[in-house]
Amino acid sequence: MKLIKYLLMSFVLLIADDISISNISDAFKNGKTKTLIRYGMQNRDSNYHILQDAPTDTSSNKVQSYSALGGYIGYETAPLYNISFGTTIYTSNPLGSNPSNEKGLGGLSEINGKQESYTTIGEAFIKFKTDKNLLKIGRQEIADYRFISLSDVRMIPFTYEGAIYENSYLDGLKVNLAYLTSKKARNAIDFEGMVRSARVSTGCGEVNSLGECLNRGKKGLIRGEYDSSNYNSNGNYIGENKNMPLIGVIYNKENFQVEAWDYYINDFFNTIYLYGNYKFNFVNNLKFLVAGQYGYQENVGKSVVGSIDTGFYGVKLEANLDNKISMFTAYNKVDYNEASYDGGSIFVGFGTPQLFNSFQVQDGNLAGTESIGAGVQFDLGALNIIDSTIIRFRYASYDLPDDLYMKDAGQDRKESTFDLRYSFKKKSGFGIFTELNGLSIQFRVAFNDFKTDYNFEKYKLLHGYNVFSVRDDFIDARLRIDYKF
Known about the structure:
The protein is mainly β. The protein folds into 2 domains: 31-54 and 61-192, Porin (Beta Barrel), CATH 2.40.160; 237-484, Beta Barrel (Porin), CATH 2.40.160. The chain has helices at residues 2-12, 24-29, 194-197, 456-463, and strands at 32-45, 63-76, 83-94, 118-129, 133-140, 159-167, 173-184, 244-253, 256-265, 269-283, 286-299, 309-321, 325-334, 370-379, 389-399, 413-423, 438-450, 474-484. The protein has an 18-stranded antiparallel barrel. The longest helix is centred in the first third of the chain and has 11 residues, at 2-12. It is globular and about 70 Å long. It comes from hydrothermal vent metagenome. One of its GO terms (molecular function) is porin activity. Keywords: Signal, Transport. This is Outer membrane porin. One of its GO terms (cellular component) is membrane.
């Protein structure tokens, strides 16, 4: 009740801000544009493996790749009585050879089984903004809502449709409220409901009226009771759209920060996410940060995916030397529960996975995964070695449950990544994914080494299907050249 009174009081104070634009003509005349031209290329040399963005029709491919030119152009009016309107058009277009048999990385449209151009209106909103309040309704980018984020690692980011309200009236406290109706994936034209956005699937294709897999040679992901009529013959969700109300509370005080988030989708799940960090100095120019995270997901209502009962936690230690060299080490653990969807895997399909050790493959959310990671980043400009250059090295080991009797077993793997970012405009003081004006280049190469000394036939004989989906190592290289106006 106190929170409701506090939010209502904030709305009353909205009219206190100064008004600088007096008519509609001035609002359009003084509006702002944003433009990004992006070249993106990615090449992955591997056998098929389960990824959050890989389709199921590339099982025989060893190479996936795309080369594209795109970006966005957007316009937002100047605020009139604190109200503005905005829209952004996003596009991605093939540049060079993009064979259809190398699709699957999400850089181009794959709706027709090929790698093709697409253009979409990703943003179209009305915004009310003051110093302490923000209300935004329509299609929009949402950058920092933890499980909801841009995940801008291909040609264009995720965007969402709905309404958000942010309030920072009290010093150090920020409250985020949202009601989201749909999400547009990176390489999609259309928005889709929040259940489909979670990439929900039976895992085994068509099921009968009892929800049992007709193809006994594939693993079913859904556990417990559910309405099988919500799924088509391919095992994909075709039921009604579900919306996501969410709330996030963030408190900052000097060197201390805590966050609490709750994401709810009716007849699907409720997700609770907690995060906190504490900063301290060891010596004058050596700063440390200790962070912890905890997440829990459970099914609610008449769950369209049966039973969900899983969670994860993590701890992280960072060190920063005079903003020139930064290091980290982190630990994550995901629950293993065969009575939960996919053995307890965490649903992360709405944005960038939040686990500390989510690097290149971003499957550290799989059931039972225990991961240890470390990394170091050098600001070569600040170190007076090479101006305008940031490099980063990361390494992590992912230990998955792999005992013979486990039906949700997975292969252990080790991952190494190298990132480089170069800015033609800024000498130092930026990160790998910092949004930069002007021309910048980003390059990454990642190597994943999967454990393969399993007796795969024994697993298949015991469970009746191929337990493992990953069979090989892979090298992934990507190049991104941005020019932001």
